[in-house]
From TrEMBL:
<keyword id="KW-0012">Acyltransferase</keyword>
<protein>
    <submittedName>
        <fullName>Acyltransferase</fullName>
    </submittedName>
</protein>
<keyword id="KW-1133">Transmembrane helix</keyword>
<dbReference type="GO" id="GO:0016746">
    <property type="term" value="F:acyltransferase activity"/>
</dbReference>
<feature type="transmembrane region" description="Helical">
    <location>
        <begin position="12"/>
        <end position="35"/>
    </location>
</feature>
<keyword id="KW-0812">Transmembrane</keyword>
<keyword id="KW-0808">Transferase</keyword>
<dbReference type="Pfam" id="PF01553">
    <property type="entry name" value="Acyltransferase"/>
</dbReference>
<dbReference type="InterPro" id="IPR002123">
    <property type="entry name" value="Plipid/glycerol_acylTrfase"/>
</dbReference>
<feature type="domain" description="Phospholipid/glycerol acyltransferase">
    <location>
        <begin position="89"/>
        <end position="231"/>
    </location>
</feature>
<keyword id="KW-0472">Membrane</keyword>
<dbReference type="GO" id="GO:0005886">
    <property type="term" value="C:plasma membrane"/>
</dbReference>
Length: 303
């Protein structure tokens, strides 16, 4: 009964902390980044980006604190951990919840360069957050349906153009580029609609990942294949986190060395496209198996 009574209190504390810290950090990032508009000189902008990146890391520590503010979340992290802040990484990761973002921040804030997310275009209008992400050179992607592109063919490839411009900016400061390869959060409805060949994942979209590697592959020190598993719950992961009911998080990190054969022209070279899709689908098969094994182990422990 006492735990039930505490849930509203935990919700208020966690939500307020997340909202206030996010708003304040976004405001600080914007203030630091104002000179980018006034002084459009590459050396000056690189210095400003470095300062804004330092402020962004503070938000990473705040999100890390969120996981233990009102309840001790147990982290089960397996795999490689010998990472460095002064290098470049690309992460391929499954997408389950909005909690994935503070989770990545928790992983990154100590021993990785700060991450850059590919965001939906609509998020740029979020108060403070949208402008803060723009200051940090987060790429905003505008997705079009096949039907829309058929009527407006001149817009085809705009997302690739956005990716290219963003990746060019990432060359000047150590960065972790995040690719949620499924393109959207996993739900049973989406899983059924896409007729996914995987039990716990949506099919990965290879184009954006391949193009990022084509643009920055020579600069990346490694690819980090990260797999996230949350224990089954009748609630959403966001609700469980904010109400102090998220007790365990399972993360597997595999560091893959950069291979030259992963760099190529995905959109013009048919042989490379097929080879890259085979590689990414193979990673997803491994990830799907790992998720299944983790969920089975969780179920056995709860018996």
């Amino acid at each position: 009964m006492l735990t039930t009574l505490l849930i509203p209190v935990r919700l208020i504390i966690n939500f307020t902390f997340a909202a206030v810290t996010t708003g304040l950090i976004a405001l600080l990032v914007i203030i630091v980044g104002i000179p980018k508009l006034l002084l459009p000189f590459p050396p000056v902008q690189r210095v400003i980006s470095t300062l804004a990146n330092g402020v962004f890391r503070v938000w990473g520590y705040a999100m890390s604190l969120l996981f233990r503010l009102t309840q001790p979340v147990r982290w089960h992290i397996e795999g490689d951990s010998q990472l460095h802040r002064d290098r470049w990484y690309m992460i391929i990761i499954n997408h389950l919840s909005w909690v994935d973002i503070p989770l990545v921040m928790h992983l990154a804030c100590r021993n990785m360069p700060m991450p850059r997310f590919f965001l939906k275009q609509e998020l740029i209008w979020l108060p403070l957050i949208g402008l803060g992400c723009w200051t940090l050179d987060m790429p905003f992607m505008k997705r079009y349906s096949r039907e829309f592109l058929a009527k407006h063919p001149h817009l085809k490839g705009k997302d690739i153009e956005t990716t290219q411009k963003s990746c060019q900016k990432f060359r000047h400061i150590p960065t972790t580029v995040i690719n949620f390869c499924e393109g959207t959060r996993f739900t049973p409805e989406k899983h059924q609609h896409k007729n996914s060949p995987y039990q716990h994942l949506l099919p990965p979209k290879a184009g954006g990942t391949a193009f990022t590697l084509q643009t920055m592959g020579e600069q990346f020190d490694a690819i980090l294949d990260i797999t996230i598993v949350y224990p089954p719950s009748k609630n959403s992961v966001v609700w469980d986190l904010l109400t102090g009911q998220l007790r365990d998080i399972y993360v597997n990190v595999e560091t893959l060395p950069m291979q030259q054969d992963l760099i190529g022209d995905y959109f013009q070279d048919a042989a490379f496209k097929e080879r890259f899709q085979t590689w990414l689908n193979g990673r997803w098969e491994r990830k799907d198996k790992l998720i299944g094994e983790t969920l089975t182990a969780i179920a056995n422990r709860s018996k």
